[in-house]
């Protein structure tokens, strides 16, 4: 209600002021007693201090069709007294020119002014149509254009100007020569003002100031809203049109009244000035129309706006062409030109008014502003109509009124912007609250996820340990996958908790002076976590000699790790360069890559928690988008900052700063180091004595009562001694070595059930040893426990990614070590039992098949040769002795036993087929290895029955067993009928039910490092090649 009351009072005030100015222009309130009569104005009783200026209104002497130049020495008007007549001023001269009703022609105005005293007086001349020249007491003092009786010499100009002159004998003769050949109204159409020279100049100055204020205001609006339009990224087009509308209005005002345009362009042609006035007026209407349309787009018809915009645009183009050609300007009459401009702009004004009315009728919270705008616009339109119809001088009030309307529009836009800002602030507060709730949710969720995740890890671990019975190999692989995925999820949960701790300020930074060369350790770690592609080169360009930095060593390593790891992930070829330089008291460290780069709009976003660029760069990688966010938080917590320089397709450069250590920080650190050094010297002396006492000769072997052998690797003899004692107390057999290479050599020659490996060793680190082992043996074959003194998160991550089964921090707790060893050995035993059960199943499956085929062969022999039948039964007894030996009921048997079985079978088949079957053996008798039982015999039988026996002329079977480097190669070759390609594919894919092939194939697939290859051609024969690692013990299986 209060706003409504203020609004109503404002409109009433505007109405009253406008009405006053209109009536004042018609002299309704004119109390002026000084009015000219019969060409004389008597001011003898004029008090100029009370009335500063007075209008020169009344009856002037007028000499039509004459341009009389007065003389200071004689009265030249006596010669034209017969043409003298009276004419009211201000008024158009049309009906006062005897016998000539047209506004075109010439005339001379004359007025005698009687003043109270001689002084310097001035006259302010307003609109005189359309050229004028002023004389005071016979002296020419000013002009506008060139009044002339001929159109050739005539030059129009109706500018406002001031003349100053001195009175003589308390009298002033004011003569004005006027000519008009191009306007519909001629003569002195607005009041002239008279007064002391300083007062006239002051009046002119006030009017100039008002116009300068208006022009400046519009230029200011132009600058503000065009800048706002650019700041809003060209989103709101109405801001652009409002700025252009203000610019056009400023230019328009500069071409009327006091014509400020002449200050910038003093030599401008009046015709061109009039053209600019018409163009600016049209543009001002065009841009105002578009502004209202885009600002109140719910209140406008697009078709009408488009049509009016097109018309106004063509008009601007026509005016530009017209003003560029003097010939065209002469051919197009000025009244017609003005009529066209006025008509089209009037139509635009009307539709703008309609749109404003419709906007007001919507009754929104903007309606109060719109009402003022509509009201001011309507009153402004009325004033324009009055000026056009009656040619009265009320331009300054109308311009001020229009400025009020424009300011209301600006306030309305500010109101809308404020509303948008308030809404944004409200949404921002909501987002902050949502962000707080999200963080709280993530923290709670992370804590809640931790318990089931540890449950999953423990359950999967117990399954691997065989607590619920042995698992088949496929089941083991699935459980191992579940275990590793749950560990990875646990790592993500840790990252989420770390982020929440950073946000809550719970992460402490323990700063001290450190060397930047710690990056070499990080590079060594990353080289094993994710080695760069062969086409990528990592270049460390950090100088060897640099000042110390003051920060947290572990946190700095984490920053290095995240940035370099990130660069390696996304760089497929090129280089990754790490560099550092000193700038003032900061060290600037850069990690630059030649990867795909990051578009500029994502530079700030990539440091946001959980943000990932929606492109192949991010989609090819794993993770939640926490790495860079954590990095930024750590850097800022340590007093630095981080930024990225990158372009899409041109690589990226991440740069962060670390403060340098000050002299005071270095002194404090040295004092602490001196104290620590003394303690370390004492401790080192004690360790030397302990080492001498505990010195062991490497490699050391200790026999325990349990059937498991544990290999321990550490370069510190004291640590080895402690571990040997611990493991011996747990009754395990122990082998201890001091280097990674020695460990690899022991694994090649000895049976090792578990490996305990120190992480940091000279020459060959624990990372390298673990990576080398995993190339040959998987997690189940040889479990690995990593020992480290640092206990860093990055060490743990690297260890697991390189294939470690577990991770412990020194010093080792005996009970914890016992539990972890037992857990891993149970897992290994469970996996072995599962494979053994599966082999036993295949063995049980093939035995009846073998017996059935062998007995068939003996029965066939019994009908033809009893002696051979007796020999065949002896060979069969060999097979039974092996089968019924209880100690040999194992899944793996010595190779020589399998060969003996093969030879027994082939001897029986030789008796049957005689010369149609030839057998050749090429067996290296020195090979001592184990092989799944009943593996070679079914393959040999398959070669005889389905290959050689079906050949018309029989064939030859060759059995070759030899050593090739670290592998044993077994070749079974025949020159029988061969196997078609289609059937070969069925056999190798397990889709064929022929037990003689699928059974051995499946057994060999359970043996690590074993491969079966088949080559066959129809009509030529078949070759089967088995390659497998040498198995030295029937317990060293899988």
From TrEMBL:
<dbReference type="InterPro" id="IPR008979">
    <property type="entry name" value="Galactose-bd-like_sf"/>
</dbReference>
<dbReference type="InterPro" id="IPR003661">
    <property type="entry name" value="HisK_dim/P_dom"/>
</dbReference>
<feature type="transmembrane region" description="Helical">
    <location>
        <begin position="308"/>
        <end position="326"/>
    </location>
</feature>
<keyword id="KW-0067">ATP-binding</keyword>
<feature type="domain" description="Histidine kinase">
    <location>
        <begin position="444"/>
        <end position="662"/>
    </location>
</feature>
<dbReference type="GO" id="GO:0005886">
    <property type="term" value="C:plasma membrane"/>
</dbReference>
<protein>
    <recommendedName>
        <fullName>histidine kinase</fullName>
        <ecNumber>2.7.13.3</ecNumber>
    </recommendedName>
</protein>
<feature type="modified residue" description="4-aspartylphosphate">
    <location>
        <position position="758"/>
    </location>
</feature>
<feature type="transmembrane region" description="Helical">
    <location>
        <begin position="209"/>
        <end position="228"/>
    </location>
</feature>
<feature type="domain" description="Histidine kinase">
    <location>
        <begin position="834"/>
        <end position="1032"/>
    </location>
</feature>
<dbReference type="GO" id="GO:0005524">
    <property type="term" value="F:ATP binding"/>
</dbReference>
<dbReference type="InterPro" id="IPR011623">
    <property type="entry name" value="7TMR_DISM_rcpt_extracell_dom1"/>
</dbReference>
<keyword id="KW-0812">Transmembrane</keyword>
<dbReference type="Pfam" id="PF06580">
    <property type="entry name" value="His_kinase"/>
</dbReference>
<dbReference type="InterPro" id="IPR010559">
    <property type="entry name" value="Sig_transdc_His_kin_internal"/>
</dbReference>
<keyword id="KW-0808">Transferase</keyword>
<dbReference type="Pfam" id="PF00512">
    <property type="entry name" value="HisKA"/>
</dbReference>
<feature type="transmembrane region" description="Helical">
    <location>
        <begin position="338"/>
        <end position="357"/>
    </location>
</feature>
<dbReference type="InterPro" id="IPR004358">
    <property type="entry name" value="Sig_transdc_His_kin-like_C"/>
</dbReference>
<feature type="domain" description="Response regulatory">
    <location>
        <begin position="709"/>
        <end position="825"/>
    </location>
</feature>
<dbReference type="InterPro" id="IPR001789">
    <property type="entry name" value="Sig_transdc_resp-reg_receiver"/>
</dbReference>
<dbReference type="GO" id="GO:0000155">
    <property type="term" value="F:phosphorelay sensor kinase activity"/>
</dbReference>
<keyword id="KW-0597">Phosphoprotein</keyword>
<feature type="transmembrane region" description="Helical">
    <location>
        <begin position="369"/>
        <end position="390"/>
    </location>
</feature>
<dbReference type="Pfam" id="PF02518">
    <property type="entry name" value="HATPase_c"/>
</dbReference>
<dbReference type="GO" id="GO:0009927">
    <property type="term" value="F:histidine phosphotransfer kinase activity"/>
</dbReference>
<keyword id="KW-0418">Kinase</keyword>
<dbReference type="InterPro" id="IPR036097">
    <property type="entry name" value="HisK_dim/P_sf"/>
</dbReference>
<dbReference type="InterPro" id="IPR036890">
    <property type="entry name" value="HATPase_C_sf"/>
</dbReference>
<keyword id="KW-0547">Nucleotide-binding</keyword>
<dbReference type="InterPro" id="IPR003594">
    <property type="entry name" value="HATPase_dom"/>
</dbReference>
<keyword id="KW-1003">Cell membrane</keyword>
<keyword id="KW-1133">Transmembrane helix</keyword>
<keyword id="KW-0902">Two-component regulatory system</keyword>
<feature type="transmembrane region" description="Helical">
    <location>
        <begin position="274"/>
        <end position="296"/>
    </location>
</feature>
<dbReference type="Pfam" id="PF00072">
    <property type="entry name" value="Response_reg"/>
</dbReference>
<dbReference type="InterPro" id="IPR005467">
    <property type="entry name" value="His_kinase_dom"/>
</dbReference>
<dbReference type="InterPro" id="IPR011006">
    <property type="entry name" value="CheY-like_superfamily"/>
</dbReference>
<keyword id="KW-0472">Membrane</keyword>
<dbReference type="Pfam" id="PF07695">
    <property type="entry name" value="7TMR-DISM_7TM"/>
</dbReference>
